[in-house]
Amino acid sequence: MAFLVANETGAPPIWVKGKILEMGSSGISSLGSHNERRTQCLDDFASVYGHMPLVSTNVKAIDSRSTWLW
At what angle do helices 2-9 and 34-49 cross, to 10 degrees? Predict the structure, then answer.
């Protein structure tokens, strides 16, 4: 979905704080081949789109209703 949105809008992503369910050492990124497979997957998507639509950003969104920002 991130590729689709970035390709259509040209906008960078934003980080949105959410609840995290800790998977510990059994999570998907703990597999030995995860980084290689992830890289290949991203390369495949970029090939389908004809370019890399994902762009770098440092924008972050947080729920300020329960967080002090200053």
Answer: 40
